[in-house]
Each structure stands twice: as C-alpha cells, then as structure tokens.
Specification:
Elements (H helix, E strand, L loop, with lengths): L4 H21 L3 E6 L7 H16 L3 E6 L2 H10 L6 E2 L2 E2 L3 H25 L4 E5 L6 E10 L8 E14 L1 H8 L4 E5 L1 E3 L5 E3 L2 H12 L3 E6 L14 E3 H9 L7 H13 L4 E6 L5 H7 L6 E5 L8
Parallel strand pairs: 1-2, 1-11, 2-8, 5-8, 11-13, 12-14
Antiparallel strand pairs: 3-4, 6-7, 9-10, 13-14
Helix pairs in contact: 2-4, 3-4, 6-8
Length: about 300
C-alpha cells in the first residue's frame, strides 16, 4: 500500500518524537514481565513480539520474564489434578511441579520464543535451571486467623523465592543479538525445582542488572486511586503512602511491592502498564504521552490523572 504525503509526514513525526528516547535508552537493559491478555490474544502476542524485536534492533537489551498460571491451571484440569491455593498461591506437590515445568519451561516459553523469531528477532528460551540462572529457596507461607495467637507456617511444596540470580548468563545473552526469554522456575541447592512468581523474578532480574526499566504488563489500565483514576506518575514515597492508607491492597500488593523494591534497589523506573493495548511497551518507552499505565521512580513526582 502506497503512503500518502500525510501518512508519510505522520510517520516522520513519530520517528522524530522517538529519537531522543532511542538516544537515551540505547545500550540499556529493560526487563519486561509478560503475562495477562497480552499472552493469550493473537494480535497482542504479535504486537508484543514486534516491540521486543524493535527494541533489540535499535540497540536496547530487552529481557523477557513470562508467567503462565492460566495455562498451568488448564493442563492440570485436563490431567484431573486438583489445584489448591493458600493465600493466592498454588500448592505445588511433585506431580504439580512436573506440570509447571512442562507448561512454563516447554509450551509457553517456546511459544514466546517462536513468536519473537517469527517477527524477525532472535530469541532464546531458558528456565532458571539453565546455567544455574535462578537459585531458589523454599517459600514459607505465614497464615494467621483472628483466633490464632501466632501465625502458622505452611509448607506449600515446590513454591520458591529468589535467592540468587546468575548475572553471567544474562550478560552473555543480552550482550549478543539474542533476546532472553525466562521461565520463572528456580533450582534449589538440593537440585529440586521451584515455581516462582514471575513478577518477583522479573523484579530481581532488574535489580541485579541495575536495569533502566522494569515493565510489568497487566490486565488493568494502571494503578488507580480510590476514585478509580489512573495514577500515571508516582515516587516511591507516594507509593508507600498509598499502601499505608489502603489504596493499594489485595492482589495488586505483590506486583507493587515488586516494582517498589526494584526502584529502591537501583532500577531507574518501574512501569505497570496495560498489556491489553497494542504495542504498549513501545508507547511507554518511545512517546511523549503519559503512557499506558503507572510510572514509579525515586524522584519526587505529582500524582496525575
């Protein structure tokens, strides 16, 4: 299709707007947690893959960490394996862990790798077990009811937290033409596999690499205030205050804690963005607009609607 002069001018304006951002971020690392609708809608899948390819082509180093909870649940159901949750976390026995590894390290990981490669990139899929990338330890869950004097420590099986990230593996991949795609499976000192929350893995990877940005794709427009308005710019102090007054609560807390921890540990900024928007990563990184979600930095900022 031949472009009109108006179309060509619009393209030139977009490229001109993006130029200072390209200059700023070239050579920098951006960690992206990929999940939600962006993983299940075909159009969004391809727009995400093209965003990753474009970043790499212009000299940015994207590192993708993906989830896969719904896909795990679907396969467990097909295999007639019951799922139990405690405090929102799946109890993971050995049989369930086998399914987790099959889905995250196999099916989902290779699908993402294939999408990026099909859109002109060069991706490589790894789990935390490859090259001892993610050393994990068992996550101990505290459970307390009003009737209990002290919290109960519950063993939920092969669910872990990050103990150590092997940056040598990531540096080797990121400093080549390869886009790393990481499945959030860690390995313990005893060689056991552990399922780890993908947001937590993405945050820890961003921390140890001192990444320029941590981007968390979600199924919401961003962090909202009590009136339902999206807060586009927040400092870490403002986020702490929103947690203290109860504005941030429930299922959003772990994601916010991950973003907050990354920024406080040296990541320049964290973004919680709407993965239901096509090319949301590109919009967040390369445009002058407020973006498609919430930005968290260590600098003082004013909460905007």
């Amino acid at each position: 299709m031949q472009l009109t002069r108006k179309d060509a001018m619009m393209t030139a304006e977009v490229l001109n707007e993006a130029m200072p951002y390209i200059q700023r971020f070239v050579g920098k690392t951006i960690v992206i947690k990929y999940g939600g609708n962006a993983m299940t809608d075909e159009k969004l899948q391809n727009s995400f893959a093209r965003d990753m390819v474009m970043m790499k082509l212009i000299g940015i180093n994207p590192i993708v960490v993906h989830g896969g909870g719904p896909q795990i649940g679907d396969l467990l159901e097909k295999l007639n394996i019951d799922s139990h949750f405690i405090n929102g976390m799946r109890v993971t026995d050995s049989k369930t862990m086998d399914v987790v590894e099959m889905v995250l390290g196999g099916m989902v990981n290779k699908q993402i790798v294939g999408l990026i490669n099909a859109n002109g990139g060069l991706a490589m899929g790894v789990t935390g077990k490859d090259g001892q990338l993610i050393r994990a330890r068992k996550l101990r869950v505290k459970h307390k009811t009003p009737e209990m004097e002290a919290p109960e420590i519950i063993d939920i099986g092969h669910v872990g937290e990050v103990e150590h990230i092997n940056t040598n593996v990531l540096d080797m991949l990121a400093n080549s033409d390869i886009i790393p795609v990481i499945a959030p499976i860690g390995v313990g000192k005893d060689g056991a596999s552990y399922n780890i929350n993908a947001d937590l893995v993405a945050g820890k990877v961003a921390e140890v690499l001192k990444a320029e940005k941590l981007i968390l794709l979600t199924n919401i427009a961003g962090l909202m205030d009590k009136e339902g308005n999206v807060l586009t710019g927040l400092s870490t102090e403002q986020v702490d205050a929103l947690i203290d007054d109860g504005t941030i609560h429930g299922g959003m807390l772990p994601k916010i804690d991950c973003a907050l921890g990354a920024v406080k540990s040296g990541v320049t900024s964290a973004h919680i963005i709407d993965g239901r928007v096509e090319h949301s990563c590109m919009l967040e990184i390369f445009t002058d607009d407020a973006g498609v979600g919430t930005l968290i930095t260590n600098t003082e900022s004013t909460m905007e609607e």
